[in-house]
Design a protein that fits this description.
The structure holds two protein chains of two kinds.
Chain A: H1 3-11, H2 33-38, H3 43-73, H4 80-86, H5 97-133, H6 141-160, H7 191-220, H8 233-264, E1 275-276, E2 281-282, H9 290-324, H10 331-345, H11 360-372, H12 374-388, H13 397-419, H14 422-428, H15 432-462, H16 468-494, H17 508-511, H18 514-544, E3 586-588, E4 591-593
Antiparallel strand pairs in A: 1-2, 3-4
Helix pairs in contact in A: 3-5, 3-6, 3-18, 5-6, 5-7, 5-8, 5-9, 5-15, 6-7, 7-8, 8-9, 8-10, 9-10, 9-13, 9-15, 10-12, 12-13, 13-15, 13-16, 15-16, 16-18
Chain B: H1 2-10, H2 14-41, H3 54-77, H4 81-111, H5 122-151, H6 161-186
Helix pairs in contact in B: 2-6, 3-4, 3-6, 4-5, 5-6
The chains are: A mainly alpha, B mainly alpha.
Amino acid sequence: MSQEVNLHEHAGAMTTHEVHHDEHHGHHHKETFITKYVFSQDHKMIAKQFLITGIVWAIIGGLFSVLFRLQLGFPNETFPWLENILGKWAAGGKIHPEFYYALTTMHGTVLVFFVLTAGLSGTFSNFLIPLQVGARDMASPFMNMLSYWFFFVASIVMISSLFVQTGPASGGWTVYPPLSALGDASEGSKIGMDLWLIAMALFVVNSLLGSLNYISTILNMRTKGMSMTRMPLTIWALFFTAVLGVLSFPVLLSGFILLLFDRHAGTSFYLSDIFLASTQKALPNEGGSAILYQHLFWFLGHPEVYIIILPTMGLVSDVMSANARKPIFGYMAMVGSMFAIAVLAFLVWAHHMFVTGLNPFLGAFFVLLTLLIAVPSAIKVFNWITTLWRGNLRFTPGMLFSIGFVSLFISGGLTGIFLGNSTLDIHLHDTYFVIAHFHIVMGVSAFFGMFAGLYHWFPKMYGRYMNNTMAYIHFWITLVGAYLIFWPMHYQGLAGVPRRYLDFSGWTSFNQFDGLNRFISIVTMMVFAVQLLFVFNFFYSIFKGRKVRTQNPWGATTLEWTTPINPGHGNWEGEIPEVHRWAYDYGKDGRDFIPQTEPISASESPESKH
Amino acid sequence: MGVEAMEQRKRIHPNKFTMWVAIASITMMFAGLTSAYIVKRSQPSWTSFEMPVIFWYSTGVMLLSSLAIHFSLRAFRERNRVKYRQLITLTAILGLVFVVLQWIGFKQIWATGIQFSGAGGGQFLYIIAGLHGLHVIGGVIALIILFFKAYSTRFRNYNPVPVEVMSTYWHFVDLLWIYLMVFFMLLQ
């Protein structure tokens, strides 16, 4: 089960490659600290920049949830130490209601966009695309660097919004107008909202620059012999993700531009017939439609959840196949179902709007299209299970997280069938049922997929291993904890407990959950602590982890493991290797694995139909 | 690297391909805005507006600039550097003239009382045509960079890819404006 055993097992299969050692790489141009670590144009370094920025964001976003869970679990207690940290936002040791909404808003924004979009796609697209398709770098390394720095500036703007006097945006991560359009409506709709919009506009630019590069690298920079159907599923997944991003983020941007004009220029795109209680004034705006914003937002918003989950589906497929020592089951079905998901992603956005006054007749179509997504999702799940079936499983941390991903994806996916029905949604919308659904199916599972990828490719990133003991603790507590946190929320949601409420003690019908809320909050803190253990393991292993001594420690077939242990800028020392087969020749003809670079020999059994 | 280069030649150049994907992306942005326009038309208190005559002139200027960049690309391919420089300069100037004409058009509509307040289609016009204008300005900046590269005495570059990418983009902003023009005319 440990890595050592695997290393010995596969030492025999390593004969086709000489083991290269560090230091030597093809390009010997002078690199200063600035060009190597800061304004780097090397896709591997940019990937690490995205990753570490993403980790910082994940800690911040996770901490927000711990803070608001503190309020939800212990609404009647005071924590004087909170005032020391948060100042006036926790005067008297209780979280201020305005700040509570800011916490939930920023938790959503940070995790959806800054961690699970930029931190995830940014890391793995940048790291794996050139390495797995056989390219020296991205189509445009300069644009790639620009993409990271747009993300960095977006991060700075978003962070700075936490420190303005009126606080950060607090109208929910979807920033629906009219609340978000009227500065007088709430504290969080003042300067914090402007900073939020600016940060998100910069973020969209980052995402577009990155995605353009990913698409043209995958389509145009593949090495000889790397036909599309020989690409690892990770690359397919990252490709569909980038396409979704390129086509949906601009629409979000146009929605934000209109919102900015409503805020500052007096236009009425989203505003109509409003009387503001805080200023006792009737606003002159008329003819605007708040639903229009929701259409523009969710036209991105729905593809966005696939932008989050598709990359992890790819990562999990590859980690699972390599650690089950079996070809991935149904390669073409996997590609086809990802394509189907990508197409459907654009046709289901209104299922977020069933109760906004959407025409029920129109709703029926969106119900149908939404439920159709169950088909490709189920195909993928069955293919993962059949890949595991009778496999020669190695329970590495990456593999455990992959299996955990499939478990969570099933659990969360099933509740999607409930929510996709417009009639059931009348009862379930805006309750904890929704919270439970999307946290399991896209939040926690995407994190599991990301962890699987990190544990698996960490040796390629840093030339060292992460500590396995800490990894196993991390896995088990996170898996059990995630279920303990989100499973009970389904029951709360079915009982009608609304999301985003500060304090339930005023409602007799929701009081029965006081103990449960306390329990969820305590588990949240424990799970958060274990994530800090992961962060420690990550940084400790970069410097002190056990060194990788073989070129292909997992015995994997894909191209990234044919590069030197610490590849330089340009990835391969000599020529880029040629590819002769698909990426999943595990357990073929009595051999443990056959790398993609090995020509098909005459005696070999015919290529399996995929 | 020889094999790679050969492989590469069969496919479209990555930078050109990137431009096409970027065009798809920009198209989505304007598709979002124009569909918002259509949705909002059915809302109460919608008012329409008259397109100023000057927009016809700016359309003409835009079409001329498209012709100019077309011939400048041809001149570049024929290695006629003098003609190329002249035409690329002309394109950039026509681009600027277009932006100025748009600005004058905006001022004229603004003067007729179609402003940001209220709920009319005019607010969309400023934003949609304004964003298009920003894309033209972006193109002009790129043209200026090409212009300086063309006059650089240190580097003499016969690689047509940057000029081809530029020309694709320029034709795109031209087409985009014609689409917007037709859209606003039909849906007044």
